[in-house]
Amino acid sequence: MSMRVFRLSMENSLERDLARLHGAFKGAPKSERAALFPRAPENHDAVCSQALPCQHCGAIVALLIYAPGAVDAASFDAYASAMQMCYSDLNVATWIVGPAVGEGPMGQRPADTLRVWPARGGITRMDPDQFGALIDARTREHCSAHFDAALRPPELRHDQ
Fold first, then answer.
1. C-alpha to C-alpha distance for 14 and 23, rounded to whole angstroms
2. Strand pairing partners for 100?
3. Which of the pair, 149 or 21, is modelled with greater confidence?
């Protein structure tokens, strides 16, 4: 079967299905019409994330996905699966960050993190200073043209 014949058969099939639904819709009592076109579930969970730019060129170099419900390996995996399309399309280093754990001021509590892109790591508990240093180094080192411009070939220098 050629591609053209296949496309025509698909179009005809779609037209028949739409005509059937339209007829059913027109003939159905108003109270039953909604059942013909089911709605998407309304309990969509929003996931908060933060794209971090390079300090020099502004390109996104890392993505943090905040996962307040990530309390064990299974829930981290659920967040990773739900967000995979987003972070794989961006193609930048990505971590899922769980909720703060332990006692003390919120800004000093450690959190479990899971690196999911480009290479998956294990769940690691880090305090804000450790994780901040890791992310700062990544955003600072992405575009090192400002640090070693004299060593770069002229076509790769940003200062010209």
1. 14
2. 111
3. 21
